Structures are given as C-alpha cells and as structure tokens.
Amino acid sequence: MAGIEELSPVAGPVSTRPPEDEIDDDEDDDMDETLMERLWGLTEMFPDTVRSAAEVSAQCSVSLVKKFYSFSRTALWVGTTSFMILVLPVVFETERLQLEQQQLQQQRQILLGPNTGMSGSMPGMMPPAPGKI
For the whole model, what pTM was predicted? Predict the structure, then answer.
C-alpha cells in the first residue's frame, strides 16, 4: 500500500519530468549516424544464417530481374522484326489490290455510266433492261 500513498495527492506533488537545465542532448548524438551505419548495426541483430539467406535471395532476385529484362528485349525484337517481315508485305499488297479495284471501278463508271460501276456487270455486255432486275 505504500505505492498508493506515494502517488496520492496527500503525499505531495510528484515530479515526473526533470528540470530543463538537467536535460541532456542525447537526441543529437543519434543523428550523427548515417543510414548505412544504422543498417550495418541492424545486421548484428540477426544470425549469420538469416543474413546469408537474405543475401542469396537478394542476389537471386537481381539476377532474375536482369534475365527477364534481357528476355523481354529479345522477345520484343523478334516479334517486331517478324511482324515487319511477315505481315506488313501482305497488308501493303492487299491495300494495293484494293486501290487497283477502286481505280478500275472508277474507270468503268466514267466510260459506261454511273450504274455500271456499282452493278458489277461485265464491261462488254449490255446493261440489264429496266424492270428485270
């Protein structure tokens, strides 16, 4: 019960904080360390097996990222060049054929009249009689 009496208001005021002239500058001493020094100090907390396992896993992760980056660059190069060699000539050729067909259709329209280019009839044949379509 002595603990209760010491904390009671009857026992008098309890000082929990030292006066300001007695406060040391302990906080400034901690700021002199760099981040690397602090991290190095943390390594002493862990056993050697944990540290070596973390080092191996970090090296493996870096190696894996490098290999993935190299593979993605190679795959992108192969995909792009294959597309340009295999697909683009087909696209250009179909575009050229469509342009030729449009020019031929326009030429037929000019020579034979506006209805001939749309009906798709042969150029040497007579147009169909009206009413028999």
Answer: 0.45
